[in-house]
């Protein structure tokens, strides 16, 4: 019954390829697959445009495998991918779809691994080469004939390849292949540079374009949160407390930010790693593997480092820094909601980025709802919920295994069962704050930036962004000094000076905000005059600190 074979059966794929696809459990071809497979099978050149997560790999792998002759031991298909991870992912996909094609070999060719074995595998007749452009050009320099038998070429994520500066390499590669080959190009976007490559090297290409508007985004629940730039880390920590995630990827703009946020989250006990362009390739692969198998739950990444990353466990994407363009936003959130699963995407928006939010909403055709930062009560509730979830499965049989011991401990210690249970809880929760007062103390409330009380700093001093005043923790007051970044001051200088000269413990000092022309420090109200007296002559970076109580209202 053809019905049972699903929509793939009607596409004209080689029966062995079809059998392998059915075995993967795919039920229906995706839109890009439905449209591309017949075109590629018919031997046309093609330009395919579709966003991440739409199933582009199978869209070219299935028809190309169908057109390869496994009996011929020579390279027949070349797939170019922008990064090593993507090359490996595509190679693995080819291997999966070729499971029922004995004699068909796939070789991944990328930098950072020795060239010898790669070249050997090519010469031994791997029919499919999946390569990054840079390394392939290195091979061509050693043996200009390696690509002389290629009949099918695919440029996967072509726009990304150009962004990574592979234009010249691509030209070299095009020259090394027979003119008669079939060329297929897949790209999420079609900037001018891609169009001109297509014009030059593709022969009357057919265009297949999948409108992405709802495609990638519908399965993903999107929300945004207004926050000030300097409160992002605190906001992320709060959100993580209440969001029920399996694996999460957090996007930031810079390499340094990946490291900073990852270490802040690590300090909170999360299993987290940074992923950026500076991290060695094999280490990056290990990070992705760890995220897949649960040794890591959070990856903090830059856009380039996370491009194409396909980890089904990812339930959440957190846009900690705004993406540079709406396309990147769609790419980013496409990391979750893979293959029809539900996903959630959160976007942190600083006041000056509101316009970008509107652009994103226009491009995705969807409203991105505003959510508020969870308050202490919600954080507490989430913690207790997690505790309940982790303990309730144990209740069923823990009494059988530990009940006698419990009786003995109660007798030996001479306490009530409630007292003992409380002691065990304290131990098990490792001193985590589990009362409202404790949670509040631990994380002074970070308000949403969008609140109407937003206004300029006192004295009319501009500091880039307008900021809402942060409520003070109980018993603290804010003090001000006229020293700021223009005087070469950093928070740690102020902290050091106040600790040394004021004789305070670290915990006594709250938030320190350093602006261009002034700084604010939260100090204990109790004994403030005495403290300011001690600090009267203190100098920081060669200048008088002159700390004063700061009254805002
Ligand atoms: P893209 O290259 O467009 O970003 P991929 O080819 O990486 O997308 O596919 C995304 C995910 O969807 C992969 O996990 C893949 O196994 C899965 N997938 C692809 N085609 C189908 C299909 N027809 N049915 C179900 N899942 C699919
Ligand atoms: Mg892809």
TrEMBL record:
<dbReference type="InterPro" id="IPR014014">
    <property type="entry name" value="RNA_helicase_DEAD_Q_motif"/>
</dbReference>
<dbReference type="Pfam" id="PF03880">
    <property type="entry name" value="DbpA"/>
</dbReference>
<feature type="domain" description="DEAD-box RNA helicase Q">
    <location>
        <begin position="6"/>
        <end position="34"/>
    </location>
</feature>
<dbReference type="Pfam" id="PF00270">
    <property type="entry name" value="DEAD"/>
</dbReference>
<feature type="domain" description="Helicase ATP-binding">
    <location>
        <begin position="37"/>
        <end position="208"/>
    </location>
</feature>
<keyword id="KW-0694">RNA-binding</keyword>
<dbReference type="Pfam" id="PF00271">
    <property type="entry name" value="Helicase_C"/>
</dbReference>
<feature type="domain" description="Helicase C-terminal">
    <location>
        <begin position="235"/>
        <end position="388"/>
    </location>
</feature>
<comment type="function">
    <text>DEAD-box RNA helicase involved in various cellular processes at low temperature, including ribosome biogenesis, mRNA degradation and translation initiation.</text>
</comment>
<dbReference type="GO" id="GO:0070417">
    <property type="term" value="P:cellular response to cold"/>
</dbReference>
<dbReference type="GO" id="GO:0005840">
    <property type="term" value="C:ribosome"/>
</dbReference>
<dbReference type="InterPro" id="IPR027417">
    <property type="entry name" value="P-loop_NTPase"/>
</dbReference>
<dbReference type="GO" id="GO:0003724">
    <property type="term" value="F:RNA helicase activity"/>
</dbReference>
<dbReference type="GO" id="GO:0000027">
    <property type="term" value="P:ribosomal large subunit assembly"/>
</dbReference>
<comment type="similarity">
    <text>Belongs to the DEAD box helicase family. DeaD/CsdA subfamily.</text>
</comment>
<keyword id="KW-0067">ATP-binding</keyword>
<dbReference type="InterPro" id="IPR000629">
    <property type="entry name" value="RNA-helicase_DEAD-box_CS"/>
</dbReference>
<dbReference type="InterPro" id="IPR011545">
    <property type="entry name" value="DEAD/DEAH_box_helicase_dom"/>
</dbReference>
<dbReference type="InterPro" id="IPR050547">
    <property type="entry name" value="DEAD_box_RNA_helicases"/>
</dbReference>
<dbReference type="InterPro" id="IPR044742">
    <property type="entry name" value="DEAD/DEAH_RhlB"/>
</dbReference>
<dbReference type="GO" id="GO:0005829">
    <property type="term" value="C:cytosol"/>
</dbReference>
<dbReference type="InterPro" id="IPR005580">
    <property type="entry name" value="DbpA/CsdA_RNA-bd_dom"/>
</dbReference>
<dbReference type="GO" id="GO:0005524">
    <property type="term" value="F:ATP binding"/>
</dbReference>
<dbReference type="InterPro" id="IPR001650">
    <property type="entry name" value="Helicase_C-like"/>
</dbReference>
<dbReference type="GO" id="GO:0033592">
    <property type="term" value="F:RNA strand annealing activity"/>
</dbReference>
<keyword id="KW-0963">Cytoplasm</keyword>
<keyword id="KW-0547">Nucleotide-binding</keyword>
<dbReference type="GO" id="GO:0016887">
    <property type="term" value="F:ATP hydrolysis activity"/>
</dbReference>
<feature type="short sequence motif" description="Q motif">
    <location>
        <begin position="6"/>
        <end position="34"/>
    </location>
</feature>
<dbReference type="InterPro" id="IPR014001">
    <property type="entry name" value="Helicase_ATP-bd"/>
</dbReference>
<keyword id="KW-0347">Helicase</keyword>
<feature type="region of interest" description="Disordered">
    <location>
        <begin position="439"/>
        <end position="470"/>
    </location>
</feature>
<dbReference type="InterPro" id="IPR012677">
    <property type="entry name" value="Nucleotide-bd_a/b_plait_sf"/>
</dbReference>
<dbReference type="InterPro" id="IPR028618">
    <property type="entry name" value="DEAD_helicase_DeaD"/>
</dbReference>
<dbReference type="GO" id="GO:0006401">
    <property type="term" value="P:RNA catabolic process"/>
</dbReference>
<protein>
    <recommendedName>
        <fullName>ATP-dependent RNA helicase DeaD</fullName>
        <ecNumber>3.6.4.13</ecNumber>
    </recommendedName>
</protein>
<keyword id="KW-0346">Stress response</keyword>
<feature type="compositionally biased region" description="Basic and acidic residues">
    <location>
        <begin position="452"/>
        <end position="468"/>
    </location>
</feature>
<keyword id="KW-0378">Hydrolase</keyword>
């Amino acid at each position: 019954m053809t019905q049972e074979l699903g929509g793939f059966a009607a596409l004209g794929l080689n029966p062995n390829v079809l059998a392998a696809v059915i075995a993967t459990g795919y039920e229906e071809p995706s839109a890009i697959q439905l449209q591309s497979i017949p075109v590629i099978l018919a031997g046309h050149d093609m330009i395919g445009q579709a966003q991440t997560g739409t199933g582009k790999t199978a869209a070219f792998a299935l028809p190309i495998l169908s057109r390869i002759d496994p009996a011929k031991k020579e390279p027949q298909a070349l797939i170019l991918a922008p990064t090593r991870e993507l090359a490996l992912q595509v190679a693995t996909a080819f291997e999966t779809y070729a499971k029922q094609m004995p004699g068909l070999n796939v070789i991944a060719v990328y930098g950072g691994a020795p060239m010898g074995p790669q070249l050997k595998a090519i010469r031994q007749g791997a029919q499919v080469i999946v390569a990054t452009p840079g390394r392939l050009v290195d091979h061509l320099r050693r043996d200009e004939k390696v690509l002389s038998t290629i009949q099918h070429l695919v440029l996967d994520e072509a726009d990304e390849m150009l962004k990574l500066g592979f234009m010249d390499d691509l030209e070299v590669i095009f020259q090394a292949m027979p003119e008669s080959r079939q060329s297929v190009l897949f790209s999420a976007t079609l900037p001018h540079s891609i169009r001109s490559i297509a014009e030059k090297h593709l022969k009357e290409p057919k265009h297949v374009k999948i409108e992405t508007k709802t495609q990638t985004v519908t399965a993903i629940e999107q929300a945004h949160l207004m926050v000030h730039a300097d409160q992002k880390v605190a906001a992320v920590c709060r959100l993580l407390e209440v969001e029920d995630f399996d694996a999460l990827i957090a996007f930031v703009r810079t390499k340094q930010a990946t490291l900073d946020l990852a270490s802040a989250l690590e300090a909170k006990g999360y299993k987290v790693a940074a992923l950026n362009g500076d991290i060695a390739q094999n280490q990056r692969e290990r990070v992705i593997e760890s995220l897949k198998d649960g040794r890591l739950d959070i990856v903090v990444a830059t856009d380039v480092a996370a491009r194409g990353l396909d980890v089904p466990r990812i339930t959440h994407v957190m846009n900690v820094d705004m993406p540079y363009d709406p396309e990147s936003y769609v790419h980013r959130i496409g990391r979750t909601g893979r293959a029809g699963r539900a996903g959630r995407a959160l976007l942190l928006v600083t006041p000056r980025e509101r316009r970008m939010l509107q652009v994103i909403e226009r491009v995705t055709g969807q409203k991105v709802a505003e959510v508020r930062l969870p308050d202490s009560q919600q954080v507490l509730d989430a913690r207790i919920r997690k505790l309940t979830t982790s303990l309730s499965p144990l209740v069923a049989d823990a009494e059988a295994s530990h009940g006698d011991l419990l009786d003995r401990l109660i007798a030996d210690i001479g306490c009530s069962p409630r007292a003992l249970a409380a002691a065990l809880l304290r131990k098990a929760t490792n001193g985590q704050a589990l009362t409202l007062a404790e949670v509040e103390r631990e994380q002074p409330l970070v308000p949403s930036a969008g609140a109407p009380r937003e206004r300029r700093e006192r004295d009319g001093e501009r500091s880039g962004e307008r900021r809402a005043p942060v409520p003070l923790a109980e018993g603290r007051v804010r003090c001000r000094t006229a020293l700021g970044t223009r005087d070469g001051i950093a928070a740690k200088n102020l902290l050091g000076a106040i600790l040394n000269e004021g004789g305070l413990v670290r915990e006594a000092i709250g938030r320190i905000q350093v602006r261009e022309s002034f700084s604010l420090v939260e100090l204990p109200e109790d004994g403030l005059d005495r403290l300011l007296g001690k600090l009267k002559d203190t100098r920081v970076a060669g200048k008088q600190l002159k700390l004063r109580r700061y009254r805002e209202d």
